[in-house]
Automatic annotation (TrEMBL):
GO terms for cellular component: proton-transporting V-type ATPase, V0 domain; vacuolar proton-transporting V-type ATPase complex. The keyword Protein biosynthesis does not apply. It comes from the Bacteria. One of its GO terms (biological process) is vacuolar acidification. Pfam families: V_ATPase_I. This is V-type ATP synthase subunit I. It is a multi-pass membrane protein. The chain crosses the membrane at residues 324-349, 361-386, 406-424, 436-457, 469-486, 493-512, 518-535, 547-575. One of its GO terms (molecular function) is ATPase binding. It comes from Geofilum rubicundum JCM 15548. Residues 43-106 form a coiled coil.
Length: 607
């Protein structure tokens, strides 16, 4: 559900304002309303520094993730010193990488010429023997040159010939050979360049190791600096959003407070004799959203966050789609063995990874749903238990669902969720606009539920054709009036009728498409079962007839095969129910969205 908000306006004497902000921040209840959207230079610099530090923290965390780091703990006075050293190391690493890149280019230049000493070339030049280093394509090289000149072929690499021409006069003009270029070589030998590269690589390793040690031991100092910057940024923004009144003697600041927290805030304001006004939000105001759900629904908020938050005038759909999402995941994966595996891993990791508590809690519920649907369909690690000769299962096979019935079940679940979404749409419209605007949706509910109920009653003999016809006509009349004539309380009957006809076309085509989308649940469930069965067959057929190798090969095929199946089927079981939720369910529930999360002005912001 969405927690109701109250809008507060505070009028504070300017000399007491900073102390008031400090106390307000300690309470951590006010979401400051943004009135000035263009940040000042000071705010921009603080935000840039905070974002840079946040990126550094993430890099440090990822740097030592699942990595053993050995060495003495580096000592720094504070987080600023840590950040300064990190930046210095990163600058040194960038310089070293640039030096390595330049040395690589020089090594590539020298590679075709071999490892020679440039000083020896200079000694020859001092003795009036000058070397020209020449290169041309292999097809342009003429062997006659070696007979006519003091010329030596050095190498042929990559379609190019590299050769040296010896001359006695440095000023002698270069012979005009077509396609031949003279190149200038680095003033280092190849071995010297390799030594420089090795030395720089050692320096890079030392810098990397220092970064690893900082990442392992100094993240706490960086986090403290991050909290300090965030606090300073929030306070600066609060002052920026403050308005000056009464010749700058009175400060005005406005914001939003969750209704359950207003009692304590009011007591504080009365005690400090602060002038304030508290009002309910108007329809056109952008009110921050704070969700408050039970333990089960709270786990699925991470799914809802993938789309967007509801606005403050509508229902929070998370607790309503959570059971459906759980069922759809179990339906799509549909293997009791995989479900038990997910459950086991989640139970094992949960106490060891407290930061992932909510995600692992969600995995537990999804694993449980998979176990239930796997048991209903008789699938266990790709084995079709319905067709297996297992004596102790004979008594429960009659309760299992065959592949043929899975198709019908997928459509039934789709019908239930779509109708449930339309019921929620009525509630949403009633909350935001009024009951009269929901007549059209109510008409569709009467038409769909009424027609379906009459069909079922006639099918099971509880209603005769004669009375069933009267009942059906009644449903058509009531729903037709609501859909075609009363769909909008502020339009004429003619406009309502024309709009209703268009609504009929859109609903009929839309509902059919929405309903057919739920067939993907059946397809995913069947495909995961088939993949598991195929790997079971491969393990049996490809295992050699050997007392040791046979079981070993079988285990390898089963582990790899079912691991691949679980990954692919699990990904599909996660993604496709999300699509059904955000496209089919949200649309039929009339979800508008566009809400902004409640972020209080606090020492450390919490949701």
């Amino acid at each position: 559900m969405i927690v109701a908000m109250m809008k507060y306006s505070f009028l504070v004497y300017h000399a007491e304002y900073k102390a008031f902000l400090k106390e307000l921040k300690n309470m951590g209840v006010l979401h400051i309303e943004v009135k000035k959207h263009e940040p000042t230079t000071e705010i921009q610099e603080l935000l840039r520094a905070y974002n840079d530090l946040s990126r550094t923290l993430r890099n440090m965390e990822n740097r030592v993730k699942d990595k053993e780091v050995e060495g003495a703990k580096p000592v720094f006075d504070n987080g600023e010193a840590v950040l300064e050293r990190i930046h210095a190391i990163e600058g040194d690493l960038e310089l070293k990488q640039q030096q390595l890149s330049n040395l690589d280019k020089e090594a590539q230049q020298l590679g075709p010429w071999g490892d020679f000493n440039p000083q020896r070339v200079q000694q020859l030049a001092d003795s009036q023997l000058f070397l020209r280093f020449l290169v041309c394509r292999d097809k342009n090289f003429d062997p006659q040159w070696e007979k006519d000149h003091y010329l030596k072929m050095i190498s042929s690499v990559g379609g190019f010939s590299y050769f040296v021409l010896i001359e006695k006069d440095e000023r002698q003009e270069m012979i005009d050979w077509p396609g031949v270029d003279e190149i200038a070589l680095p003033q280092k030998s190849l071995s010297a360049i390799r030594e420089d590269q090795s030395l720089i690589n050692k320096e890079i390793d030392q810098l990397d190791n220092e970064l690893d040690l900082i990442a392992k031991h100094c993240q706490g100092q960086l986090q403290s600096l991050s909290d300090q910057l965030k606090s300073e940024l929030d306070e600066t923004n609060a002052l920026y959003q403050t308005q000056d009144e009464v010749e700058e003697r009175v400060k005005l600041i406005e914001g939003w407070v969750p209704k359950p927290k207003t009692e304590d805030l009011n007591a504080f304001l009365e005690d400090r004799k602060i002038l304030y006004v508290a009002n309910k939000p108007s329809d056109d105001e952008k009110v921050p959203v704070l969700l408050k759900n039970n333990k089960f629904a709270r786990l699925f908020e991470v799914i809802g966050d993938l789309y967007e938050l509801p606005n403050h005038k509508e229902l929070d759909l998370v607790p309503f789609f959570a059971p459906f999402y759980m069922m759809f995941f179990g339906f799509s994966l549909g293997d009791a063995g995989y479900g038990l595996l997910i459950l086991g891993v989640a139970f094992w990791l949960k106490p060891r990874m407290p930061a992932m508590k909510n995600i692992l809690g969600l995995a537990q519920w999804l694993g449980l749903a998979t176990v239930i649907f796997g048991a209903l369909t008789g699938t266990f690690f790709g084995m079709d238990l319905i067709n297996e000769d297992i004596p102790w299962l004979e008594g429960v096979k009659q309760y299992m669902i065959t592949k043929e019935n899975m198709f019908n079940l997928a459509l039934i679940l789709g019908v239930i969720q779509i109708l449930f979404g339309m019921v929620l749409k009525v509630v949403n419209i009633y909350i935001s606009k009024g009951f009269a605007y929901a007549y059209s949706t109510i008409g569709w509910l009467i038409l769909l539920i009424g027609s379906g109920s009459i069909y079922l009653l006639k099918h099971f003999g509880a209603l005769g054709d004669h009375h069933g016809g009267y009942a059906q006509n009644g449903v058509f009349i009531v729903s037709g009036v609501l859909i075609l004539l009363l769909n909008h309380p502020r339009r004429s009957l003619v406009m309502n009728f024309l709009s209703g006809l268009w609504d009929v076309y859109g609903m009929v085509t839309g509902l059919i498409g929405d309903l057919l989308s739920y067939i993907r649940l059946f397809a995913l469930g069947v495909s995961s079962a088939i993949l598991g069965f195929v790997f079971n067959e491969l393990a049996m057929s490809l295992s050699p007839d050997h007392i040791i190798l046979g079981p070993l090969v079988m285990i390898i095929i089963l582990v790899v095969g079912h691991g691949m199946t679980l990954f692919m089927a699990g990904l599909g079981a996660f993604v496709h129910p999300i699509r059904l939720t955000f496209v089919e369910f949200y649309k039929n529930a009339g979800f508008t969205g566009g809400g902004k999360r409640y972020t209080p002005f606090a020492e450390k912001s919490v949701e």
